[in-house]
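wait is this the right file?? whatever heres the structure
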């Protein structure tokens, strides 16, 4: 880190970290939840929801009081895929095309009691590219742990943690690039404590700690960082199915080397709406105030709107629809650019056609706006990802799958960032 870096913002961030740690020592200690293992698109990765969730859950967790007493709490999975990638390095000119083979394996465990729900997953895999210069193998691994504990009739504690080693870009992780930047470690841990003060009023105290670390030193020196968020919300039951929310969040972002630290404050109002047992909607709107460091133009202040929305609809026993939206600042993923303004929205549809045949369809759209005076010329980038997959259960142990994903990056004022990519695969999955 440069010796002449302004220390005011750094000192405030470090002081906040100490306060958060002290507060958490007296709040909660538990363990943490899982995510979908096999992504229906990119080779060798573990699912779409690794991210610093674009929409943070207000209370989340499995229903309490229902025990899981299966004879086999462990579940083992294995998969093999053959696929084709039209742009291995996500470049605009002369893209490298390659067939690939992917192997993946995992083990999961679930435990449930009237007060404690626990689940954990461990997965790993490799992808071999037949026509990729240099190292033809991508290695990946992930571990997740989640728990919800009813400490008292009024107090509920929950923890979610994910740690992964990844090789492919994942746009669901806020503040990362949509293109290939080499291998990286990603870790995200969330703790929360919800207390029911009265029949209508409750509070939720939550803390999230996230790390992104790139294995390539040059990239990590500019983009490797720690992100933290502490939030306190008050919730009041306005109507039997409508809960009003007031929430405050503080978000220090600390880079390992780059002089691009920031300290954000969020002032939000929202609603948690239950239309019926199958349809729910959570939304937050408000203002974001952020102090930003930059190695070129020093300190600056950003003030802008913030929005997040999460609509979930379970329209069948094996069919669901989800719609996410978020607008706010994120780490830029670009050298010497402290942040970007990003609007992201995504639809995810899962449907069980028959007892054996199921499918998934998803579409995600990111609009990234880069505008940092004296650093870069302003430009807008659109990243669109479309994916679909089918799964056919041959029997209770074996299933066949096929999938396709298309990604396009359009940036007319920064054409060097543009590319498109097609990934298709067929494979078999085994579980026991």
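ok assuming it is, sequence goes like this
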């Amino acid at each position: 880190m440069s010796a002449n870096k302004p220390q005011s913002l750094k000192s405030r961030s470090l002081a906040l970290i100490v306060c958060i740690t002290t507060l958490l020592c007296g709040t909660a200690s538990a363990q943490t939840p899982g995510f979908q293992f096999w992504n229906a698109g990119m080779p060798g990765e573990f699912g779409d929801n690794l991210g610093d969730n674009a929409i943070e859950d207000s209370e989340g967790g499995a229903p309490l009081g229902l025990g899981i007493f299966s004879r086999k709490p462990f579940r083992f999975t294995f998969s093999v895929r053959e696929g084709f990638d039209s742009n291995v390095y996500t470049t605009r000119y002369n893209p490298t095309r390659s067939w690939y083979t992917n192997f993946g394996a995992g083990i999961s465990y679930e435990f449930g009691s009237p007060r404690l729900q626990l689940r954990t997953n461990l997965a790993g895999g490799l992808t071999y590219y037949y026509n990729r210069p240099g190292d033809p193998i991508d290695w990946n691994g992930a571990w997740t742990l989640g728990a919800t504990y009813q400490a008292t009739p009024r107090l509920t504690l929950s923890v979610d943690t994910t740690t992964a080693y990844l090789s492919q870009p994942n746009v669901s992780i806020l503040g990362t690039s949509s293109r290939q930047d080499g291998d990286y470690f990603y870790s995200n841990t969330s703790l929360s404590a919800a207390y029911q003060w009265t029949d209508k009023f409750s509070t939720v105290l939550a803390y999230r700690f996230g790390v992104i670390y790139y294995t390539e030193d040059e990239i990590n020196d500019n983009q490797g960082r720690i992100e933290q968020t502490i939030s306190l919300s008050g919730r009041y039951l306005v109507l039997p199915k409508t809960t009003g929310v007031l929430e405050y969040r503080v978000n220090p972002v600390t880079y390992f080397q780059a002089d691009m630290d920031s300290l954000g404050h969020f002032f939000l109002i929202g609603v948690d709406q239950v239309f019926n047992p199958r349809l729910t909607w959570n939304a937050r709107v408000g203002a974001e105030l952020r102090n930003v460091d930059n190695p070129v133009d020093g300190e600056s202040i950003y003030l802008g709107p913030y929005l997040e929305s999460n609509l979930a609809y379970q329209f069948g026993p094996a069919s669901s629809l989800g719609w996410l939206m978020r607008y706010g600042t994120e780490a830029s993923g670009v050298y010497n650019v402290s942040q970007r303004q990003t609007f992201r929205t995504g639809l995810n549809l899962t449907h069980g056609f028959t007892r054996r045949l199921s499918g998934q369809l998803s579409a995600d759209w990111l609009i990234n706006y880069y505008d940092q005076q004296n650093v870069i010329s302003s430009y807008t980038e659109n990243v669109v990802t479309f994916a679909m997959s089918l799964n056919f259960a041959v029997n209770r142990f074996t299933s066949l799958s096929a999938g396709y994903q298309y990604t396009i990056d359009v940036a007319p004022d920064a054409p060097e960032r543009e590319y498109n990519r097609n990934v298709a695969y067929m494979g078999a999955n085994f579980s026991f």
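Confidence is low (pLDDT under 50) at residues 1-41, 46-70. so i think its the right one actually
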